[in-house]
Amino acid sequence: MIYGIGTDICDLRRIARTLDRKSQRFAEKVLGPHEIEVFRDRLARVETRGVAYLASRFSAKEAFSKAIGLGMRMPMTWRACEIVKAPSGKPEIRLHGALAEWFTARGLSAHVSITDETDYAAAFVVVECREAHGG
Question: Domain 4'-phosphopantetheinyl transferase, which positions (predicted)?
Protein backbone atom coordinates (compact mmCIF):
# COMPACT_ATOMS: atom_id res chain seq x y z
CA MET A 1 0.00 0.00 0.00
CA ILE A 2 1.36 3.45 -0.87
CA TYR A 3 2.01 5.55 2.22
CA GLY A 4 3.22 8.65 0.37
CA ILE A 5 4.78 10.06 -2.78
CA GLY A 6 7.22 12.95 -3.03
CA THR A 7 8.98 14.75 -5.84
CA ASP A 8 11.43 17.63 -6.03
CA ILE A 9 13.45 19.52 -8.61
CA CYS A 10 16.57 21.51 -7.81
CA ASP A 11 18.44 24.13 -9.83
CA LEU A 12 22.14 23.18 -9.97
CA ARG A 13 23.10 26.82 -10.48
CA ARG A 14 21.50 27.69 -7.12
CA ILE A 15 23.44 24.90 -5.41
CA ALA A 16 26.69 26.09 -7.04
CA ARG A 17 26.05 29.68 -5.84
CA THR A 18 25.37 28.40 -2.31
CA LEU A 19 28.63 26.44 -2.35
CA ASP A 20 30.47 29.58 -3.52
CA ARG A 21 28.98 31.61 -0.65
CA LYS A 22 29.21 29.07 2.16
CA SER A 23 32.09 26.88 1.02
CA GLN A 24 31.46 23.25 1.93
CA ARG A 25 29.45 24.07 5.08
CA PHE A 26 26.24 23.70 3.07
CA ALA A 27 27.28 20.24 1.87
CA GLU A 28 28.24 19.25 5.43
CA LYS A 29 24.77 20.31 6.64
CA VAL A 30 22.91 18.35 3.93
CA LEU A 31 25.01 15.23 3.36
CA GLY A 32 25.43 12.22 5.63
CA PRO A 33 28.77 10.55 6.42
CA HIS A 34 28.95 8.35 3.30
CA GLU A 35 27.60 11.06 1.00
CA ILE A 36 30.10 13.70 2.09
CA GLU A 37 33.00 11.42 1.12
CA VAL A 38 31.53 10.80 -2.34
CA PHE A 39 30.78 14.51 -2.77
CA ARG A 40 34.32 15.61 -1.90
CA ASP A 41 35.82 13.02 -4.24
CA ARG A 42 33.59 14.09 -7.14
CA LEU A 43 34.07 17.80 -6.46
CA ALA A 44 37.85 17.36 -6.46
CA ARG A 45 37.81 15.49 -9.78
CA VAL A 46 35.24 17.53 -11.70
CA GLU A 47 33.49 20.41 -9.90
CA THR A 48 30.26 20.10 -11.90
CA ARG A 49 29.96 16.41 -10.93
CA GLY A 50 30.25 17.36 -7.26
CA VAL A 51 27.58 20.04 -7.62
CA ALA A 52 25.26 17.63 -9.47
CA TYR A 53 25.80 14.99 -6.76
CA LEU A 54 24.94 17.45 -3.98
CA ALA A 55 21.89 18.76 -5.85
CA SER A 56 20.55 15.28 -6.57
CA ARG A 57 20.91 14.29 -2.89
CA PHE A 58 19.29 17.54 -1.77
CA SER A 59 16.40 16.90 -4.15
CA ALA A 60 16.00 13.26 -3.06
CA LYS A 61 15.89 14.20 0.62
CA GLU A 62 13.27 16.88 -0.07
CA ALA A 63 11.20 14.32 -2.02
CA PHE A 64 11.60 11.75 0.78
CA SER A 65 10.53 14.26 3.44
CA LYS A 66 7.38 14.96 1.41
CA ALA A 67 6.65 11.26 0.86
CA ILE A 68 6.77 10.52 4.61
CA GLY A 69 4.60 13.54 5.34
CA LEU A 70 6.97 15.27 7.75
CA GLY A 71 8.75 17.83 5.64
CA MET A 72 11.93 18.87 7.40
CA ARG A 73 10.64 18.27 10.93
CA MET A 74 11.99 15.85 13.49
CA PRO A 75 12.80 13.08 13.24
CA MET A 76 13.54 13.99 9.57
CA THR A 77 16.88 15.72 9.28
CA TRP A 78 19.21 16.17 6.32
CA ARG A 79 21.98 13.99 7.69
CA ALA A 80 19.69 11.22 9.04
CA CYS A 81 18.70 10.37 5.45
CA GLU A 82 21.34 9.27 2.96
CA ILE A 83 20.98 8.33 -0.68
CA VAL A 84 23.42 5.52 -1.43
CA LYS A 85 24.10 3.27 -4.40
CA ALA A 86 23.34 -0.44 -4.29
CA PRO A 87 25.99 -2.68 -5.92
CA SER A 88 23.77 -2.69 -9.01
CA GLY A 89 23.94 1.13 -9.17
CA LYS A 90 20.32 1.60 -8.08
CA PRO A 91 19.88 4.50 -5.65
CA GLU A 92 18.58 3.52 -2.21
CA ILE A 93 17.63 5.38 0.94
CA ARG A 94 19.62 4.65 4.11
CA LEU A 95 18.27 6.09 7.36
CA HIS A 96 19.99 6.71 10.69
CA GLY A 97 19.02 7.27 14.32
CA ALA A 98 15.56 8.45 15.32
CA LEU A 99 14.44 8.70 11.70
CA ALA A 100 15.34 5.05 11.06
CA GLU A 101 13.45 4.04 14.21
CA TRP A 102 10.39 6.13 13.23
CA PHE A 103 10.39 4.66 9.71
CA THR A 104 10.82 1.04 10.84
CA ALA A 105 8.14 1.35 13.55
CA ARG A 106 5.63 2.20 10.82
CA GLY A 107 6.63 -0.75 8.63
CA LEU A 108 7.69 1.52 5.77
CA SER A 109 9.96 0.98 2.79
CA ALA A 110 11.08 3.55 0.23
CA HIS A 111 11.97 3.64 -3.45
CA VAL A 112 13.90 6.56 -4.93
CA SER A 113 14.73 7.66 -8.45
CA ILE A 114 17.13 10.54 -9.11
CA THR A 115 18.33 12.27 -12.24
CA ASP A 116 20.32 15.33 -13.23
CA GLU A 117 20.92 17.35 -16.35
CA THR A 118 23.00 20.43 -17.09
CA ASP A 119 20.89 22.81 -14.98
CA TYR A 120 18.60 20.63 -12.84
CA ALA A 121 18.47 17.62 -10.56
CA ALA A 122 15.19 15.88 -9.78
CA ALA A 123 14.02 13.09 -7.53
CA PHE A 124 10.90 10.98 -7.09
CA VAL A 125 10.21 8.91 -3.98
CA VAL A 126 7.49 6.36 -3.27
CA VAL A 127 7.08 5.16 0.31
CA GLU A 128 5.14 1.97 0.90
CA CYS A 129 3.64 0.47 4.00
CA ARG A 130 4.41 -3.24 4.07
CA GLU A 131 1.07 -3.98 5.70
CA ALA A 132 -2.04 -2.01 6.54
CA HIS A 133 -0.96 0.31 9.36
CA GLY A 134 -2.69 3.23 10.98
CA GLY A 135 0.65 5.06 11.42
Answer: 4-124
pTM for the complete prediction? Answer: 0.91
Chain Cα centroid distance, residue 1: 22
70 within a domain of the structure (yes/no): yes
Q: Give the domain range for residue 117.
A: 2-129
113, 91 in Cβ contact below 8 A? yes
Is 8 marked as a binding-site residue?
yes
- Per residue in 6-43, pLDDT (tens digit) is 999 999 999 999 988 877 899 999 999 999 999 999 99
| 119 annotated among ligand-binding-site residues | no
* Span 39-84, pLDDT tens digits: 999 999 999 999 999 999 999 999 999 999 998 899 999 999 999 9
Q: How many domains does the chain have?
A: 1
Count of all residues that appear for the chain in the document? 135
What is the domain-level CATH number for residue 13?
3.90.470.20
